Amino acid sequence: MKDVLEELAAAHRAMGKGSLPAGEAYTVELRRRYDAQIDDVWDAITSPERLHRWLKPITGDLRLGGKFELDGGEHGEILRCEPPRLLRVSWLYGPDADAWPGTSEVEVRLTPGPTDDTEFELIHAAAVGEPSFPTYGPGAGGVGWDLGLLALGRFLAGGDIAGHEAFENSPEGREFSRRSAAAWGQAHLAAGGEPEQVAAAVEATTKFYAPDPT
């Protein structure tokens, strides 16, 4: 459990503002360091053979302008691709999401460190009118990205992680999700969120990702 919580603490979280083709957006931002060279990290986030090891199986035309789809229903278009430093994609979920283009984008920025390490930054921008935000706040996507970056860290370190569902339902995974939801609550407060709204969002996010066992 200790190494999982250390992974959680390794990331800096922030909530900010941005813009999208659809208009004003809020951003969920994660920044952390990986003990891996930049080319290795880039390959891990762009190679289908490696993506399925830590994220999900992916299909599609994985080049600039191409469209992709993950096994969980997330899909989009590759908007920018500048190896090995920058990747930006549209990020939609569910069949109805295609009716609302320009409402969600994910950008990953990689910077080489001084000792063969890599600074990893992920920015997920979602339209202000995104319906889940009033209920869940930044934790709606933030906890999911925390889980993904945990898996990526273990993968880059040569380790392994249980299947997503198995890990998320394990005591270790549930505790990770609870603490991640609380951490996103702190980021929401720092961005000016109302305390009562933040507390309600953290509670809703925790119940979604780590519901009480039945």
Automatic annotation (TrEMBL):
All residue ranges annotated as the Activator of Hsp90 ATPase homologue 1/2-like C-terminal domain in the record: 35-128
Stored Pfam families: AHSA1
Matching InterPro entries: ASHA1/2-like_C (IPR013538), START-like_dom_sf (IPR023393)
UniProt record similarity statement: Belongs to the AHA1 family.
Name listed for the protein in its UniProt record: Activator of Hsp90 ATPase homologue 1/2-like C-terminal domain-containing protein
Annotated organism of origin: Actinokineospora spheciospongiae
